[in-house]
Specification:
Blueprint: E1 3-4, H1 8-11, H2 14-24, H3 31-35, H4 47-51, E2 65-66, H5 82-86, E3 115-120, E4 126-129, H6 130-135, E5 139-146, E6 151-161, H7 162-169, E7 177-182, H8 190-194, E8 203-207, H9 208-211, E9 217-222, E10 225-226, E11 236-238, E12 251-257, E13 291-294, E14 300-302, H10 310-313
Parallel strand pairs: 3-12, 6-13
Antiparallel strand pairs: 1-2, 3-4, 5-6, 6-9, 7-8, 7-12, 9-10, 9-11, 13-14
């Protein structure tokens, strides 16, 4: 596969790129397009604090770009600025109830040292520490991300295919699902106490064919550095054809199981089902999913089937609705 480093003008210093572009085309027909490259968030004294990676692994980051995993053609070609992606996040353990400036609430959260236990229906259960995780061969992939709340972004994740981690424990033939358990540290995660009615810790699940799919990434980095705390440091999952809550953050345990596991948001079964694929034909009970909007500008665009990754994953879901559906009512089971 062809590999190359991240183009810094797209992801690491987009402002400087835009200024240079404007200067180089001053007075030309292209000047108007350069002016469109305006910063979405002003530079503040908090910028360094927001973007400071909690783990330093210069031997790993920046990982080399794998161009085989380009953003789907059905998604507008619009990379999300690094600061934008770092200042609007859903992470209820820190900021329950809505997406926002999670970074302001993560100062007490410690991500080093860290261990991930992998157990269940496997022949060689074991724990992986940070050295083990960073020992996997890393690469960078640019993925389109879609939240169930309709906002979207396009970001460069770094990591390795989740299947490589699962192969290390040798799953048994009856391992049909993968369950994820995330960190539970009330003293370090203020949102847990603020939302004590939730069934903490956060837990999610995938089918084994989803977990071992080429697109499913065990993520340890973003924008060429180790994951920020608000992005789910030190380990999260990226499943780009599913809504964001199917991408668990700050994982401490992975369990291979035979039966379909319950998931955190199935406490509201008419809203969030186990599959939770991005599908414009399946509305949320309170809003349509037919359109998405960019996290910063709020500019809208049509939501593509499977978030644009239909060519790669549609065969996994032969009964996925392809025509507009009615919103689910309380008591109806979601997909």
């Amino acid at each position: 596969m062809p590999l190359k480093p991240t183009e810094p003008e797209f992801f690491f210093n987009r402002r400087e790129f835009c200024r240079a572009a404007a200067a180089s085309v001053m007075g030309s027909a292209g000047f108007s397009s350069a002016l469109a490259c305006q910063p979405t968030i002003p530079v503040t004294s908090d910028r360094r604090k927001i973007l400071e990676a909690p783990i330093q692994r210069p031997e790993v980051f920046p990982a080399r770009r794998n161009e085989a995993f380009a953003v789907p053609s059905s998604v507008p070609d619009r990379p999300t600025e690094r600061l934008v992606a770092a200042t609007h996040n859903n992470f209820y353990e820190f900021l329950p109830g809505y997406a926002g400036e999670v970074w302001k609430h993560t100062s007490a959260f410690r991500v080093d040292p860290w261990k991930v236990e992998v157990t269940g229906e496997c022949h060689e259960p074991r724990s992986f520490d940070l050295d083990d995780l960073f020992r996997f061969e890393h690469e960078e992939r640019v993925y389109h991300f879609r939240c169930v709340e309709r906002w979207a972004m396009t970001v460069p994740w770094s990591g390795f295919p989740l299947r490589k981690l699962l192969e290390k424990v040798k799953p048994k033939s009856n391992a049909r699902y993968v369950k994820f358990l995330t960190a539970y540290r009330p003293k370090e995660m203020p949102g847990i106490a603020q939302a004590s009615s939730y069934d903490w810790p956060y837990f999610e699940g995938l089918r084994i064919d989803e977990a071992t799919h080429d697109l499913t990434l065990a993520v340890t980095g973003v924008y060429g550095e180790a994951l920020l705390k608000q992005h789910g440091a030190p380990l999260r999952i990226a499943v780009p054809w599913k809504y964001g809550y199917k991408n668990p953050k700050s994982i401490v345990k992975i369990e291979l199981v035979e039966k379909e596991p319950s998931t955190f948001w199935q406490i509201q079964p008419h809203e969030y089902g186990f599959l939770s694929n991005v599908n414009p034909n399946v509305p949320h009970p309170r809003w349509s999913q037919a359109r998405s909007h960019w996290i910063d500008t709020k500019e809208t665009f049509p939501t593509p089937m499977f978030n644009g990754y239909a060519d790669q994953v549609a065969s996994l879901y032969p009964d996925e609705p392809t025509t507009p559906q009615e919103p689910l009512k309380p008591g109806q089971k979601a997909r």
